[in-house]
Design a protein that fits this description.
Four Helix Bundle (Hemerythrin (Met), subunit A), flat, transmembrane helix, Metal_resist, membrane
Length: about 150
């Protein structure tokens, strides 16, 4: 390799590495400044206030109930897919669309009612102190939060 060819190679590698380092630095800055994700609104997160065994039992009970009612979730998903399909058709059938959305809403409501009833059954067996800790977790999650400032 000649000296000028070697210089071109080194210059090309320097430019490439500069872009690579800039991209990594930009990604790192973006990652650091990114807002934390909002917590998912699910009942098991409120169980974080309970002790280890109670928390595991609470979350397990709700997960078992969700597994039992999985068909309702699938039914709701299928109804939403059907509603989306109906919306995309050239001739909108409002009655069929309303029916598909109603089926999705009813299935989601039944699923939520089942999970909430299981939570009520579980909480009925807790002591007063455990119920208070659980209620504090729910209050913390539902209390209005001040707007984020940047």
């Amino acid at each position: 390799m000649t000296e000028s060819g070697f210089r071109r190679l080194v210059l090309g590698l320097l430019v490439f590495n500069t872009f690579l380092i800039s991209a990594l630095a930009g990604a790192g800055i973006f990652y650091i400044q990114q807002d934390p994700p909002l917590p998912v609104s699910r009942l098991p997160l409120a169980g974080e206030q309970l002790s280890g065994d109670d928390k595991t039992a609470f979350q397990g009970a709700l997960a078992d109930e969700r597994r039992k009612l999985r068909s309702l979730g699938l039914e709701a998903r299928q109804a939403r897919i059907e509603a989306a399909s109906l919306m995309g058709q050239p001739d909108l059938n409002k009655v069929a669309l309303a029916d598909a959305l109603k089926r999705a809403r009813d299935a989601e409501l039944a699923l939520r009612q089942g999970v909430e009833q299981r939570a009520v059954d579980f909480v009925a067996n807790l002591t007063l102190d455990q119920r208070r800790r659980l209620s504090e977790g729910l209050i913390e999650r539902e209390a209005p939060k001040p707007p984020a400032t940047k």
